[in-house]
Amino acid sequence: MKKLRQFILLGTLLATTTYGITAFAATYGNNAHGVKNTEHFQLYYVGEAWTNQRGNSAWIKYYRNGSFIGSAVAYKDNWRTDNGKVYDSVTIWDSMNPWAPKTTFTYKL
Questions:
Q1: Which one of 25, 46, 57, 86 is most buried, counting C-beta atoms within 10 A?
Q2: Which distant-in-sequence residues (6+ apart) come within 8 Å of 20 by Cβ?
Q3: Whether the predicted model's global pTM rises above the 0.85 cut
Q4: What is the pLDDT of residue 79?
Q5: Element at 5 (helix H, strand E)
Q6: Angle at CA 89, nearest 5°, toward 104 and 101?
């Protein structure tokens, strides 16, 4: 029984370190217009913005210690033909230092 526990623990440990596990994902908006923030294993964030609506924009901006570090902006002009979704994404790496300033994000729909 002890060997079985060790095998299960080792398998779980290997699976979590081998495959990217999403620790946190938040989506705001809907399929036509929105933003998404995904934190991967507390190492990096992926920010996504999209819109199908003409004349609208969606963005997500990342800050660390009050300083801007990156953004994803999706904007669809009024004059464009209605040919689908406008999409943008950004990857922001986090610090492994537990005492480093927090990475935060803001968004607009």
A1: 86
A2: 40, 41
A3: no
A4: 77
A5: helix 2-18
A6: 20
Structure tokens at 66: 């009050």
pLDDT at 16: 57
Q: How far apart are CA 30 and CA 8, in angstroms?
A: 39
Q: Please say whether the beta carbons of 51 and 28 come within 8 A.
A: no
Residue 84 contacts by C-beta under 8 Å, 6 or more apart in sequence? Answer: 52
Amino acid identity, residue 83? N
pLDDT value of position 55? 80
The residue type found at 103 is T
- Phi and psi at residue 50, to the nearest 5°: -150, 155
Phi and psi of 55, rounded to 5°? 80, 10
Per-10-residue mean pLDDT, the chain, length 109: 67 56 80 92 93 89 95 87 85 90 93
